[in-house]
Design goal:
The complex is a heterodimer of chains A (211) and B (273).
Chain A lengths: L13 E7 L4 E6 L4 E6 L6 E7 L9 H8 L9 E3 L5 E8 L13 H7 L10 H10 L12 E3 L22 E7 L3 E7 L15 E6 L1
Antiparallel strand pairs in A: 1-10, 2-9, 3-8, 3-10, 4-7, 4-9, 5-6, 6-8
Chain B lengths: L7 H9 L28 E7 L4 E6 L4 E6 L6 E7 L9 H7 L10 E3 L5 E8 L4 E2 L7 H8 L11 H10 L12 E3 L2 E4 L5 E4 L7 E7 L3 E7 L14 E6 L15 H13 L3
Antiparallel strand pairs in B: 1-13, 2-12, 3-11, 3-13, 4-8, 4-12, 5-6, 6-11, 7-8, 9-10
Classes of the chains: A alpha+beta (211), B alpha+beta (273).
């Protein structure tokens, strides 16, 4: 599962290296200047992603501020992830995937009931992962906002049709994010099995942090 | 300091003399409107207010209430937050709203969904057609860049801080100001993801009617759209609300798609007590 090529292009010393199991939450603090590489180990694994300012976690990632500032819904190399107060939290300094999503939100038991039916109630979801991880820091449901979905593909058609479609990622592809402030990173390694976001098969991802 | 107002009686008389002043932007109490839709009794009027350019308002609305917004002069931008009044941790989820309905552009017949898989409100009427689920509210930093100032206390208040004040009046705080929907100013998304704002100015008098599907706290800011490149341009927003029937099982919006139907089933389940 771990492959030396996963370090290609990273410059600073590795200070953290962890496999996040399929379906699991992950929470990690990065200080300003550190870089997080997320590796899509087996391909097309949605990585739901939120950020909180470590010094004041009422300041958090804002998909809408990020979209408005860059005039585009897709996150690409060079995209700056802005907070709800308009400040840069992280910058995508490189990615081997053309673009990532930030309009599709996170799956939840509740939205699954709308999208697929009430028979999905017992299935695990990203919002449950976000809740579990947030509760450990004293945050809760109010702290969950529209997130990033790395390695997920949500196009908007000319008529407004919008949906999660087949991914454009592949095994070993990566996204690198530089922290612009001290941040808490919250991840749900998406457990969704009812749409193509994980190729109907949730898989592990690798998190590499460099100083 | 005015010597004429140096004693409390004079100050009281002065204050009271202002009471009948009429301003362009103000609430009308009790509410009064001469343009209610056919079939709406004047006694069912709940709220009549014109929100100032750069202003905000907040209100609790009962289930079934109709809320009509009118862009009086063609340059209003209504940034809207919605909460379940009984449990405000449940609130508008704009990502679920577009994802669940497979549609980037809320319009007549669309619903606004909570993060609990329920319908907060339905859009029952809309002759504007230009709304924005993607760009959100301006903030102090973006207004400072554009106008040189973005403070509530200045001439160019930003939408986020207006929403914060409105939310705070219901005991809510910074963690509760969630991604909003902008009404009357729109966007279209190009194939490459580019955001093309639709900023007008539009014809005066465009309107939109929402139906509250839950008991709601709603917060509205009326500030320039965050991508509006013009010098400060915003015009007053009129809001009118009246009592209405809760949504029936044969309602056309409820039955329009399987996703909306299940959202209404979830909502009805909340009120099955």
């Amino acid at each position: 599962m771990k492959n030396e090529s996963h370090f290609d292009g990273l410059t600073g010393p590795v200070i953290h290296d962890e496999i996040v199991a399929a379906r699991a939450p992950w929470r990690h603090r990065l200080n300003a200047g550190e870089t997080l590489r997320v590796v899509d180990l087996e391909g097309n694994q949605a990585v739901d992603f939120l950020l909180y300012a470590a010094a004041d976690d009422a300041e958090r990632y804002s998909a809408q501020d990020t979209i408005a500032a860059q005039g585009n819904i897709f996150l690409r190399s060079g995209s700056v992830l802005l907070s709800n107060e308009g400040r840069p939290m992280m910058t995508i300094v490189g990615t081997s995937v053309e673009y990532h999503d930030t309009i599709g939100g996170a799956c939840s038991c509740e939205s699954n009931s709308l999208r697929y039916g009430h028979h999905t109630r017992a299935q695990h979801s990203c919002v449950d992962n976000f809740l579990e991880a947030n509760l450990r820091d004293g945050r809760g449901k109010r702290d969950i906002v529209s997130n990033v979905n790395f390695f997920m593909n949500v196009p908007v058609e000319a008529d407004g049709a919008l949906g999660i479609v087949d991914g454009i990622s592949a095994p070993g592809l990566t996204v690198d994010l530089r922290a612009e402030m001290d941040v808490i990173v919250l991840v749900s390694n998406c457990p969704q099995i009812n749409n193509p976001c994980n190729g109907f098969n949730p898989t592990p991802v690798r998190m590499i942090v460099t100083a | 300091m005015s010597t004429a107002l140096a004693d409390p009686n004079a100050a009281r008389a002065h204050a009271r003399s202002m009471g009948d002043t009429v301003a362009e932007a103000m609430p009308i109490l009790p509410p009064r409107a001469d343009d209610l839709p056919a079939g709406v009794a004047p006694d069912d009027l709940l709220w009549e207010e014109t929100i100032a350019a750069g202003g905000y308002a907040s209100r609790i609305l009962a289930r079934g209430s109709r809320l009509r917004l009118i862009d009086l002069a063609g340059d209003a931008c209504a940034s809207l937050l919605l909460f379940n009044a009984a449990m405000p941790t449940e609130r508008l989820n704009i990502a679920d709203t577009v994802k669940v309905q497979w549609d980037a552009y809320p319009a007549a017949g669309s619903v606004l969904l909570s993060d609990m898989g329920r319908v907060l409100a339905s859009i029952v009427d809309d002759d504007a057609g230009t709304h924005d689920a993607f760009c959100g509210a301006s903030n102090e930093a973006s207004n400072r860049r554009h106008y040189g100032d973005g403070r509530n206390s200045g001439a160019y208040p930003n939408a986020r801080d207006r929403l914060l004040l409105g939310a705070a009046k219901h005991g809510l705080g910074r963690r509760d100001v969630h991604p909003c929907i902008n009404l009357f100013k729109g966007v279209r998304i190009a194939d490459n993801g580019a955001v093309a704002p639709q900023l007008g100015p539009f014809a005066p008098g465009r309107s939109l009617v929402l139906r509250a599907e839950m008991e709601l706290i709603l917060v509205i800011a009326n500030c320039p759209h965050v991508l509006d490149p013009r010098a400060w341009t915003i015009t007053p927003l009129r809001v009118t609300a009246w009592r209405g029937a809760e949504t029936a099982s044969d309602d056309p919006i409820r039955a329009a798609t399987p996703e909306r139907l299940r959202a209404f089933l979830n909502t009805e389940d909340l009120y099955r007590r």
